[in-house]
Each structure stands twice: as structure tokens, then as C-alpha cells.
């Protein structure tokens, strides 16, 4: 259920309330019980659980490490250490 922010026009109380979307305009101030409240601007926050894109520097370093491994394997193969 969404959390909406409100401001009471009678006592200037700022408060939040869990409301269904259909009920978001029917709020009452918890201090003075006034129905003269306005919804305040609030921002939603979404937390992404999965990893986002990796920084370019990390990708470059991983590619460099892979390249070094391939060069080492190629050298060992040329020396006869690796048999196919």
C-alpha cells in the first residue's frame, strides 16, 4: 500500500499515511482531525536488488586480465607445456 505525505491547512502538521490509491484524497489530520489537508509532493524510491552495469574501468581491467591469461597460455603452448 502506498505511503502518501500530507500537510494540514488548519494546524500545518506534516504527516504520512498508508492509503489505497482510491482513498488518497480522503485524509484526516491525526492532530486536529481536520479534513482540510493537501497531499504534499513526495518521491518514491525503488531499490534495485540486482547489480547494475559495471563501471568501464572494471570491464577494461577484466578484459586486460583475460588477455594476459590468453598470452600466457599461448606461450606455454608454444613451449610445449600444453598438449591438445
Structure description:
With 84 residues, the chain is α+β, with helices and mostly antiparallel strands. The chain has a three-stranded antiparallel sheet with strand order 2-1-3, with no helix packed on it. It has two domains: 3-39; 53-84. It is built from one helix and three strands.
Give me some keywords for this one.
84 residues; alpha+beta; 2 domains
Short précis:
This protein is of the alpha+beta class and 84 residues long. It is 29% helix and 17% strand.
List the helices and strands and how they pair.
Blueprint: E1 3-8, E2 14-18, E3 37-39, H1 56-79
Antiparallel strand pairs: 1-2, 1-3
Q: Please state how the strands of the largest beta sheet are arranged side by side.
A: 2-1-3
How far apart, in Å, are the first and last alpha carbons? 62 Å
Number of helices: 1
Morphology call: rod-shaped
Number of strands: 3
Q: Helix/strand/pairing class, anyone? A: alpha+beta
**Gyration radius, to the nearest Å?**
30 Å
The proportion of strand residues reads 15-25%
Can you give the mean pLDDT?
81
Topology pattern, helix = H, strand = E = EEEH
Please bin the fraction of helical residues: 25-40%
Major β-sheet profile: 3 strands, antiparallel
Number of domains: 2
Which ranges are low-confidence, i.e. pLDDT below 50, for 5 or more consecutive residues?
none
